[in-house]
Amino acid sequence: MSSNDAVEDVQDQKQSAAQSTSSSAKAFISGGFGGVCAVLVGHPFDLTKTRLQTASPGMYKGAIDVVRKTLAKDGITGMYRGMVPPLLGVTPIFAVSFWGYDLGQKIIRSFTPNRTSQTFSTTEYAIAGFISAIPQTFVAAPVERAKVLLQVQGQGGTEQKYKGVFDVVRGLYKEGGIRSIFRGTGATLARDGPGSAAYFVGYELTKKALTPAGASSSDLNLGAIIIAGGTAGVAMWSIAIPPDVLKSRIQSAPTGTYSGFFDCARKTIAADGVAALWKGFGPAMARAFPANAATFLGVEASRKLMDMYF
Length: 310
What we know:
Elements: H1 3-54, H2 63-74, H3 84-111, H4 122-152, H5 165-181, H6 185-210, H7 222-252, H8 261-272, H9 281-309
Helix pairs in contact: 1-3, 1-9, 3-4, 4-5, 4-6, 6-7, 7-8, 7-9
């Protein structure tokens, strides 16, 4: 190899590294922006889902009854109770998720250096999606713990124990240290691992289906992005509800109620039947399309804006 070839090789490596760093940064930022959009659109649905999942039998007749009773007691602001934790945590949660998805794709490419096509298979999209959930879980679990506790307090005449998110974190740390704050981490991964795989597969395959022959999916209009994003949400929540129910119960129950994920599943089924694992399915699915359409719309719009300037 000549000295000129060596210099060009070094320059190519530096350029590739710079592009990789830029891609990761853009994925992180756009994911955070998309997450904020998701919370603003989807939180009332999420609150309804969580209350259905954690309420004692007979407290609510269904999702509409949750909304009616919440509005009667707390007004419209009651539908946004517990929104601060996800709003504060949503930027790192979604940012890490989309960064993790970008990382997952890079890992797959590193293991397939001789691939003949840059287009991923469905399995590869699923693997990259699952990988995205691993780092995301360590951010999502404590945020979900605080959110759930704020969402369920006050229902059924229970006391208003916490004044806000920081009061929750302070109380949990005093109660059981870091371990208490991160309760439900395993259940969160059990939900988000398969869920994220379905999420990104649903998005990518829908984009592919909506892309005209000979065109690029990066050129899809906003309407197509909304459809693909909404479909991704539906794909995720169609399989994520059972572990989400268990996660909500583990995170909202008094200390010592459950010894773990499988103990919660066993006790939940014994007490309320298998159907209990699907509590909150209606609100979750009602939220899935609009919230995730907003997510990907925010992600794609912010990504295109960054691509214009960086």
